[in-house]
Amino acid sequence: MTFQELQPKISAIVSDNKKVRDEKILAVCQLLNENVEYYNWVGFYFANHENKTLHLGPYVGAETDHTVIPFGKGICGQVAESNANFVVPDVKAQDNYIACSLTVKSEIVVPLFVNGVNIGQIDIDSHVIDPFTEADERFLELVNQEVAKLF
Fold it and tell me: What is the pLDDT of residues 2-30, one digit of tens each?
């Protein structure tokens, strides 16, 4: 399924009045995981600005021990501080990378803004080296704009 075909499905999930927020976010993760071949782990982390930590929210994929990540640590922690997208074509070439699994080859993290505040991020791991393009970034920004409506 193309990103263009997925966009209305994301909107439909977000506007579904029968589900609570975490169920909707999980459904978004499932949709992306099932329909984008190289999205092998899809999840959201949410910021606790007081403690300067990220906390794992709904996700689809292999279990992770990384349920709390300090700001600045790893790719997710860096995005919490930079407020900018971070694409890692090859995780082995990245110094400040927190290894989740030997099967992960690349990662993309896009911040989630609500009223101009970075409240979290979508994090996607791939078992393929360098699959993410600018199209992924723009699409995930749109996904996050939809998810932001839940807050």
Answer: 999 999 999 999 999 999 999 999 999 99
Cα–Cα nearest to 60, from 139, 145, 125: 125
How far apart CA 109 and CA 124 sit, in angstroms, is 6
15: which residues sit within 8 A by CB, 6+ positions away?
A: none
Which residue type, as a one-letter code, is found at position 62? A
Helices then strands (H, E): number in the chain? 4, 6
Rounded to the nearest 5°, which phi and psi values hold at 4? -65, -40
The answer to whether the beta carbons of residues 10 and 28 sit under 8 Å apart is yes
Residue 52 φ/ψ region, left for φ over 0, alpha for ψ in the -120 to 50 degree band, beta for the rest: left
Convert the pLDDT of each residue in 40-94 to its tens digit.
Answer: 999 999 999 999 999 999 999 999 889 999 999 999 999 999 999 999 999 887 6
Structural element, H or E, at residue 111: strand 106-114
What does residue 68 show for φ and ψ, rounded to 5 degrees? -135, 125
- Alpha-helix runs per DSSP H in the chain: 3-14, 21-35, 74-82, 134-148
